[in-house]
Amino acid sequence: MLRFTPLLLAILYALAMYRFSVWRTQRELDAKSTQLADPRLKRLTDRLAASLGLARIPVYIYEIDPVNGLAAADGRIFITRGFYRKFQSGEVTGEEISSVIAHELGHVALGHSRRRMIDFSGQNALRAALIMVLGRFVPFAGVWIANMLAALLGAGLSRSDEYEADAYAAALLTKAGIGIEPQKSLFRKLDAMTQARAGAAPAWLMSHPKTDERIAALDRLQHRWSLQN
């Protein structure tokens, strides 16, 4: 039993840290967000809501500058102020913003927040186990190798979630009559915006798939749907 104690402690620590992170993020979102009140975007979000059989979709502006969208554990969708400014300046369209909202709705509907809690705990348990094993054979490099392997696992799981949310968004956008093209065009624009920051990091170390791979996956979806029709 004693040999498994570090693993149990790692799992409990991971759960506690995840809960704390969710609580802290929730407090920050509550303090720094206001409900979206843009009539042009509301017309699009109303179409998404109608396609889902909902009265409305709760979308909020998160008052930070980086261009991003996110979904809270309680189902709220957030667009950052920096992203909204891109819309106001005409750099991105309303349809492209709606594709972000649809993507984040996918994370909520597919239970990615709950699944990431399990994944996060598993990664920490794996890290602890690898440190114990590798530490015996490579004392100095064992911790580094364990952290790298756990990071690779986490990145792979995150990319899988992104592909699933992309597919959900594509289906929702198609049903709402908006289509998938805004989703693809936004990927290209975001790629151009972040290219300098992302550099040439290997795809297997990135939490999001490469842009061309995400677009190719959407193309395959469209092709499959066209064959079904």
Tell me the β content.
5-15%
Low-confidence segments = 117-122, 198-205
User: How many angstroms does the end-to-end distance come to?
Assistant: 58 Å
Total number of helices: 8
SSE order, as H and E?
HEHEEEHHHHHH
Number of strands: 4
In spatial order, strands of the major sheet run 1-2-4-3
Using only C-alpha atoms, the radius of gyration works out to 20 Å
Tell me the structural class.
Answer: alpha+beta
Provide the helix percentage. over 70%
How would you sum up the major sheet?
A: 4 strands, mixed
- Overall body shape: globular
Mean pLDDT: 78
Structural commentary:
71% of the residues lie in helices and 6% in strands. The protein is α+β, with helices and mostly antiparallel strands. Strands 1-2-4-3 form a four-stranded mixed β-sheet. The protein is globular. 24% of the residues are buried. Residues 117-122 and 198-205 have low confidence and may be disordered.
Give the SSE layout.
Elements: H1 5-32, E1 33-35, H2 39-52, E2 59-62, E3 69-71, E4 77-80, H3 81-88, H4 94-109, H5 112-137, H6 142-175, H7 181-198, H8 211-228
Parallel strand pairs: 2-4
Antiparallel strand pairs: 1-2, 3-4
Helix pairs in contact: 1-5, 2-4, 4-6, 4-7, 5-6, 6-8, 7-8
Give a short synopsis of this structure.
The protein has about 230 residues and is an alpha+beta fold.
Which structural traits does this protein have?
globular; 229 residues; 4-stranded mixed sheet; 71% helix; 6% strand; alpha+beta; 4 strands
